[in-house]
Amino acid sequence: MVGLALLRNLKRNINGWVTLSVIGAFLALLPSLYILFGLFQKENENWQHIKEYMLVDYALQSLWLVLGTGACTIIVGVALAWLVAAYDFPLRRFFNWAFVLPLAIPPYIAAYTYGSMLSYTGSVQTFFRNTLGWTPDQRYFDIMSMKGAIFIFTLFLFPYVYLITKAFLVGQSAAFIENARLLGKNSFHIFFRIVLPLSQGAIVGGASLVAFEVLNDFGVTKHFGIQSFTTAIFKTWFGMFDVDSAIRLAAWLMSFIIGLFVVERLLRRRKRYSSPTNKMNPLKRRKLKGVPKFLAIFLGMVVVSFSFFVPVVQLIVWATWTYEDVLNDIFIHLLANTLSVSFVSIFILMLLAVIVANVIRSSRRSTFALVLTRLISMGYSIPGAVLSIGVLAVVISLDQKLSGVYAWLGWGEGKLVLSMSLFMLIFAYIIRFLAVGYNAVEAGFEKTGNRYMEASRLLGMGMTRTFFKVDLPLIKGAVVTGFILVFMEIIKELPLTLLLRPFNFETLATKAYQYASDEQIHQASIPSLCIIAVGIVSVFFYHWLGEKQAK
């Protein structure tokens, strides 16, 4: 009888965790379904106009942006990863983490900064005219174009390719490279004949992340006047006030993203490399001497300067000009808005991430676990503008279903309660960044293993009690890591916040965008620096955690 009671209690605990996980996965899937169903709705006049005159241009502009940025980030990211992983030279340890610092600066902030710096009245051309007495040709400084956007995206997104490729080179490729060196192959041959083929999976994975970030962007394309899918969704929604056509555009963009997934899988299909030995030795770095040593230092300093130090220093200079106008009670309220909506979203998100990760760990290698993982991770690959439309459709439908409840409570019949509150924005944040929190928690569970959990369960403790007594103390570092990473993502998120925020609700990201849209670039420096500061802390914490795990 006691054994049966324990089994019933265990089953109730498991069913509760599984139910919450399935609900979370369903909520993450729901906005995407709403968007895809938009392809089958009846077409209106606006959509006929968009389809006939604009849709092809949106697709081509987005495609060129993705292809150009992908190619450039692969060149820069792979070259720097090979340089840091395979060679030893002065400042190598500094460059090892400094090449990650560009991730702390959102591309839209970099676009505002470089766009103003390189303009006719900007600091660069002013220096040439007033100090050197030379009036440069404007064509050489015109960054407000497709080429300029690719330049910005490359400088501030290449760390995705760099990090993934470097991790592969350091951990997986040592035996192949060492064998090639023993056979007398030079560095050129090793890089093109061994490193690139071996790293194909890592390179494609990093480039895919870059492509998703480019498609998610709104600030850069809007500021540079590029007609991408995301800017088209904003124009259709707020310019034409046509949500149905915006949903159709979002559905086309989702189809484009699904196509990217298919291409990525095809490129990585049957590409499996394993080490010829079970002993995994780290890659031995060769010491650079003479001219190559100075070239490596020079290349590293150029990349770090243009992708981090130059924009940050320029923002600090602008902040010294405008802090008296910006730092006031309104800014304090703005900061409070940002922190409050971030912490509430992160608390719910990390709670759901822990529940899902615990359930998937208990159902390892099952079809249920695989499907649940895919659904939870799907939100991060959906651009913010697309996800916001799906969330809006879901929440408005929910408001309509609850109209009777609102009337019974005396709030008025037909009133949009949830759609006019922070609920919609928090809901969207959870769907968008749940994968970030889940991946951090999953990494913590993989490090601790299942032996302590299984021992606790054998002693009769339920799933919930085991988690709080055994698992949580072991993975608290992973939970903190997830908290910091999600906090950084929410702080700098722009398209989602712009579309779903309540009326008169501003965050640091939306305020920086508003200043830039009003041609008050200098005033945008302080909220931009606050966002960058959060990013720098996250990058340092990420690097420290990586160094700690490597020891």
Write a concise synopsis of the structure shown.
With 551 residues, this protein is mainly alpha-helical. The protein has helices at 2-37, 45-53, 55-86, 92-98, 107-117, 123-130, 146-172, 174-182, 187-198, 200-216, 219-224, 229-239, 243-268, 290-326, 329-362, 367-378, 384-401, 403-408, 423-448, 451-458, 463-492, 495-500, 508-517, 525-550; strands spanning 87-88, 286-287.
| Outline type | globular
How much of the polypeptide forms β-strand, as a percent range?
under 5%
Note the main sheet.
2 strands, parallel
Supply the helix-strand structural class.
mainly alpha
- Going across the major beta sheet, what is the strand order? 1-2
Arithmetic mean of pLDDT: 81
Order of helices and strands: HHHEHHHHHHHHHHEHHHHHHHHHHH
Provide the gyration radius in Å: 25 Å
Q: Low-confidence segments, ≥5 residues, pLDDT <50?
A: 1-13
Span between termini: 49 Å
* Count of helical stretches: 24
Record field, number of beta strands: 2
What is the helix fraction of residues, given as a range? over 70%
Describe this entry's structure for a reader.
The two termini are 49 Å apart. 41% of the residues are buried. The protein has 551 residues and is mostly helical. The longest helix has 37 residues. The radius of gyration is 25 Å and the shape is globular. Strands 1-2 form a two-stranded parallel ribbon. It has 24 helices and 2 strands.
Q: Keywords, please?
A:
551 residues; mainly alpha; two-stranded parallel sheet; globular; disordered N terminus
